[in-house]
Design brief:
- This protein has 378 residues and is of the alpha/beta class.
- The protein has two domains: 120 residues, Response regulator (Rossmann fold), CATH 3.40.50.2300; 220 residues, Orthogonal Bundle (Hypothetical protein af1432), CATH 1.10.3210.
- Helix content is 60%, strand content 8%.
- A five-stranded parallel sheet has the order 2-1-3-4-5, sandwiched between helices.
- The radius of gyration is 23 Å and the shape is globular.
Length: 378
């Protein structure tokens, strides 16, 4: 890892062919450096941290020394802005791969691998992390600007809400960038949320909903899955059934999402911030206490989290995913009503029944847009 004006991809290990492969693929854009001694590599990482685009640990199988590098990067906060790849040459059990992910690895790659696959995966993660850094910088800049404007101009509450909405929209764009679902997923979630919340307001005034609270809830629903941008592609886009260990990592998107939302505490109005935190963390809780991450039960789950949770389940059923085809709205309605997707509160289910036609109309409208775009791209 020598001085250079280029960004650096650092290789840790003694596999010279890995360095040669990465130089061939990335040499025009990045300097590819190599350290065989993992402890020296850890020191060099601290020196080059502002120029690192990615770190690659190439080992027969991860050992304490390799884990030490991950721990050192984590302690310095580097894993939040520098993707780390672990290349394993020997067959290892799932617990080793799980440990790598838990320690912050962006991807675990097994030999043999193709150069084009490496190029796409590494470039994808470098771009994603750059987008995350850009978002953090924009949030920090907006925070400083808004704080100064609050002191100087004492902006009205309406202007603050507008800023919150723009900020949430930016985060929603980051989620779309990752291609977790297409852009109409968020449009449907917001439409389902507003429809169900409005029906709740009209039929169950005890929840205290009003048009303003529904606006805040609808806007916040757009980032319910923001934590998924931290989940590995190998898990997030896996076409088959997840293992127990993989499902545990997938479940962590709720708490990881809270970590992302927490970065916005200085720039969001408290009402928007609290709503985002609640929805991001609790939209997978179930009325019978069998949800996650906190196992909340009954009305301990806020009505906002209940509504977005139902909206998310309904959209998952009516949408095509990598692991399944889309169900019809009628079939999705029956599956939820029959309890095949977890238990929801009786009042919410009553409003789900009342809103059935409106929800189906949202599905039809967005599916028509998707079809039109697909035909237009041919």
């Amino acid at each position: 890892m020598v001085e250079t004006t280029k960004k650096i991809i650092g290789i840790v290990g003694n596999a010279g062919e890995t360095k040669a492969t990465f130089e061939q693929i990335f040499g025009a854009t990045y300097h590819v450096g190599m350290q065989e001694n993992v402890f020296q590599a850890a020191k060099q990482i601290m020196i080059d941290k502002d120029r690192l685009a990615a770190i690659v640990i190439d080992v027969a199988q991860p050992e304490k020394s390799a884990y030490a590098i991950m721990d050192a990067m984590s302690n310095q906060g580097l894993l939040q802005r520098i993707p780390l790849f672990v290349i394993i040459t020997q067959e290892v059990g799932p617990e080793v791969e799980l440990t790598c992910y838990r320690k912050g690895a962006s991807a675990v790659i097994r030999r043999p691998y193709g150069p084009l696959v490496i190029k796409e995966r590494v470039n994808h993660w470098i771009e994603l992390y750059q987008t995350k850094r850009d978002l953090e910088e924009r949030v920090q800049q907006q925070s400083a600007a808004m704080q100064q404007q609050f002191q100087q101009l004492q902006k009205s509450q309406g202007e603050v809400r507008s800023a919150d909405e723009r900020l949430i929209d930016k985060i929603a764009t980051i989620i779309e960038f990752r291609n977790l679902e297409n852009k109409y997923h968020i449009e449907r979630i917001k439409g389902f949320t507003r429809t169900l919340a409005t029906t709740i307001m009209q039929n169950y005034p005890e929840y205290g909903l009003d048009p303003h609270k529904i606006d805040v809830m609808t806007q916040a629903s757009a980032i319910h899955d923001v934590g998924k941008i931290t989940i590995s592609d190998t898990i997030l886009l896996k076409p088959g059934r997840l293992t127990k260990e993989e499902f545990e990592i997938m479940e962590s998107h709720t708490t990881r999402g809270c970590d992302i939302v927490r970065m916005l505490v200085d720039v969001q109005d408290k009402e928007y911030y609290d709503m985002c935190m609640d929805i991001v963390r609790h939209h997978h809780e179930k009325y019978d206490g069998k949800g996650y991450p906190d196992g909340l039960k009954g009305e301990d789950i806020s009505i906002a989290a209940q509504i977005v949770g139902l909206a998310d389940v309904y959209d998952a059923l009516v949408s095509e995913r990598i692991y399944k085809s889309a169900f019809t709205p009628q079939k999705a309605h029956e599956m939820i009503k029959n309890g095949e997707c977890g238990l929801f509160g009786l009042k919410l289910m009553t409003c789900f029944e009342i809103s059935k036609g409106q929800l189906e109309q949202i599905v039809e409208q967005t599916h028509a847009k998707e079809t039109e775009e697909a035909e237009g791209s041919k």
